[in-house]
Amino acid sequence: MKKENLEKIQGTLELITRKWWFLVLFILVGTISPPIVTEGFDPSKIGEIIIYILQNSLLKFCSPLYPVFKIIPIILVLTLILFGNRSGRIFSFYVGINYLLFAFLQGIAITDKYGFGMVTGNFILMILVSIFWFWEASVNKNNFIPQKLPITRYWVVPLAFLVFWYPVNLESMKPDFNLVYLFTNPAGLAFCTMTPVYLGILTLYYPKVNIATLRVTSLVGIIIGFWNMVENFLIKPDILWWNGVLHLPLLFISIYALVLSFKKIQLVEATKEEK
């Protein structure tokens, strides 16, 4: 496809994702989409079904892959720092694959209680985020050339590192600051722990990034982050309070990234600089 056609599509995506109805549609998909199960569906227990699917998702059976998906993003971040735009497409393509895996591994469960189960809203939203990252891999709008930034812009780094580390004992759900978790836990295959990393990176290169991808990713991060706050702090605070703390970076960085994506004046200035 010709470059001018890609730019036209990109402009359309940026315009559509700014519309109020697009935001409302996304929120509705993430909040009112009922789960799909093949056995034992009870409309009065939708919340319970969703939590059960999430707690028994396919991700639990992927433990041999956990180290692989912790090491790959570390390598990719280092290549971005060292090689900049030369590794940009590879990074975006990997992120697209990662979100595709999030959708299937976290959004689907096969259990005796409910048979095949899917958290429909999460699945759809993660697939859409994946599509936007694959689109970015095609148009290559992200500019990973280092910028001179005020120190305050780096507040996302420690939060992204914390959530990537994910220092929690998965059996007791209590704090456990074992450094081995940087390479061994399932954080590399989880939406809530990798999204702050990816959004954090984009905010450090903002405004020379794919705004549509930034906006959609952050919007989904806010939606899923909100429901995690509900579960961790309101439904099971005695057990999941620390897990809730570790999900705060998802909510905070997503809100920050979404706000940045709507700062129209800075986008115009960035375009002028590129020209």
TrEMBL record:
The chain crosses the membrane at residues 20-37, 65-84, 91-110, 116-139, 151-168, 180-202, 209-227, 239-262. Keywords: Membrane, Transmembrane, Transmembrane helix. It comes from the Bacteria. This is Uncharacterized protein.
